[in-house]
Write a structure and sequence with these properties.
This protein is an alpha+beta fold and about 200 residues long. The chain contains six helices and nine strands. The termini are far apart.
Length: about 200
């Protein structure tokens, strides 16, 4: 009886160890095997992989194209007409080792804070070098490409590839809109007064 009990315990322990040493890498992920915080292996192909139980841990990163919506940003083009710009970025983690070394344990959330700073700097630099009419016209496409290219160069050190940058919206600030509306209203009232005066 005791032999079967000991044998059962040994089998359970072996199964537990075997189960904790196997992990699955999803086709939408890349994984790092860490031992005491040091990178021991990179798993980029989907399927089963192995690690040393209790000593090694697995950190997974998304391999798909991810999206980052930035907060609306106020920029000042060359003609000093301030604009509120709302943009977004699409990016992908290409080098998980470099990504881990750059952002540490913060992961994607930490990387997105840095990417937002990179995007905002590129927006300010590119849109600050042209007039507001160019930002609001069809020429905006070439500006977006220029912003993307500037951001790509900065994001390489994070192990990230920026796929695309788009400006969703570029508007006058709320206080400027109110002033513009008041000017238009005053102009219409003046024109109406002229018409009434002429009879």
């Amino acid at each position: 009886m005791t032999f079967f009990r000991i044998f059962g315990i040994v089998v359970i322990v072996l199964l537990t160890v075997a189960y904790s040493s196997i992990f699955v890498v999803d086709e939408r992920q890349k994984a790092l095997v860490l031992q005491f915080g040091q990178i021991k292996a990179v798993k980029e192909k989907p399927g089963l992989a192995f690690k040393i139980p209790l000593i090694q841990e697995v950190v997974r990163y998304d391999d798909r194209i991810l999206s980052l919506d930035s907060q609306p940003l106020e920029v000042t083009p060359l003609d000093d007409r301030r604009l509120v710009v709302d943009a977004f970025m699409r990016y992908r983690i290409t080098d998980v080792v470099q990504f881990r070394q750059a952002v540490g344990t913060g992961g994607t959330a930490s990387a997105e804070k840095r990417l937002e700073r990179i995007l905002n700097a590129a927006l300010r630099e590119v849109l600050g070098s042209v007039g507001s009419n160019e930002v609001l016209s069809d020429g905006r496409v070439s500006l977006m490409e220029q912003i993307r290219d500037d951001a790509i160069a900065e994001a390489l050190s994070l192990g990230i590839e920026i796929v695309d940058v788009r400006i969703k919206r570029a508007d006058l600030p709320t206080q400027n809109l109110a002033a513009t509306f008041q000017r238009m209203q005053a102009e219409r009232e003046r024109m109406a007064a002229d018409e009434r005066a002429r009879g």
